[in-house]
Amino acid sequence: MTEENVVYVGNKPPMSYVLAVTTQFNNGANEVVLKARGKAISRAVDVAEIVRNRFIPEALVDAITTGTEELPRKEGGTTNTSTIEIVLKK
Amino acid sequence: MTEENVVYVGNKPPMSYVLAVTTQFNNGANEVVLKARGKAISRAVDVAEIVRNRFIPEALVDAITTGTEELPRKEGGTTNTSTIEIVLKK
User: Fold this and answer.
1) Least crowded by CB within 10 Å, which of A22, A52, B16, B87?
2) In chain A, which residue's Cα lies nearest the Cα of B68?
3) Cα A29 vs. chain centroid, distance in angstroms?
4) Domain ranges across chain B
């Protein structure tokens, strides 16, 4: 799996990430990994569900893992942010 | 597993759900299921991470499943909302 199979989900509308994932599958990828942090985690789940239900019915969620990242704060120190990785396979 | 082992994550501060989960484990539960919908999904992941990293180090994420629910809209019709279930075990 190359880095091109990773889609980072941020603050854009879900459909732009859905398009990115769908394009990768249609270009021959067997696996696409969605990665998100913090509030974007909900959007990553939306993207996975929309891809499966509407665009790539043969795709399935192969694995979901969560984690915690320490990010620097602008006031100094660090803050903990949750992360998610959703592996979609077809 | 009884219904008491389910914690529904909504819009309260994450710590109130962390307390609910921690209390259930400390009362003898071997498994607690976090459930959330829509934007609360990110918070459910936060709760799972905080429980594991700070309160119940022996807890692990046993399974994460996502889904889609059709909810009625006030304007009529339905809207799709993503759901998550996080199973914590110790």
Assistant:
1) B16
2) A49
3) 15
4) 3-89
